[in-house]
Amino acid sequence: MRITFDRDKCQGHGRCYALAPDLFDSDDEGYAVLLVEAADGTVPPGQEGAATLAADNCPEYAITVHDAS
């Protein structure tokens, strides 16, 4: 599973880093930062549910989860 994040859509609601703190953080302005981006967005084992939860709760649809299949 991979996750991508469209920074231009982010409005800084903070749901993603509240729900998936191992995958997201916030920058100095309160906008989300994808922590797994350097590793091409591959979601670490055991974090698939958190990735899906963050994507499902993003009001701007800035997060996309891509299944490995």
- Please compute the radius of gyration using only Cα atoms: 11 Å
CATH architecture: 2-Layer Sandwich
The major pleated sheet works out as: 2 strands, antiparallel
Domains (count):
1
CATH class: Alpha Beta
**What is the oligomer described by this structure?**
single chain
Protein structure class: alpha+beta
State the shape: globular
Order of helices and strands: EHEEHE
Q: If you average the pLDDT, what whole number results?
A: 93
Helix share, percent: 10-25%
Count of DSSP H/I helices:
2
- Output the strand order for the largest sheet: 1-4
Distance between the termini: 8 Å
And the CATH topology?
Alpha-Beta Plaits
Poorly predicted residue ranges:
none
Count of strand segments: 4
Beta-strand residue percentage: 15-25%
Secondary-structure blueprint:
Blueprint: E1 2-5, H1 15-19, E2 24-26, E3 32-34, H2 48-56, E4 63-66
Antiparallel strand pairs: 1-4, 2-3
How does this model look, in words?
The protein has 2 helices and 4 strands. By secondary structure, it is an alpha+beta fold. It has one domain: 2-Layer Sandwich (Alpha-Beta Plaits). The strands form 2 sheets. Strands 1-4 form a two-stranded antiparallel sheet. The protein is globular. The chain starts with a strand and ends with a strand.
In summary, what is this structure?
With 69 residues, the chain is an alpha+beta fold.
Characteristic terms for this protein:
69 residues, alpha+beta, Alpha-Beta Plaits, two-stranded antiparallel ribbon, two-stranded antiparallel sheet, 2 helices, 4 strands
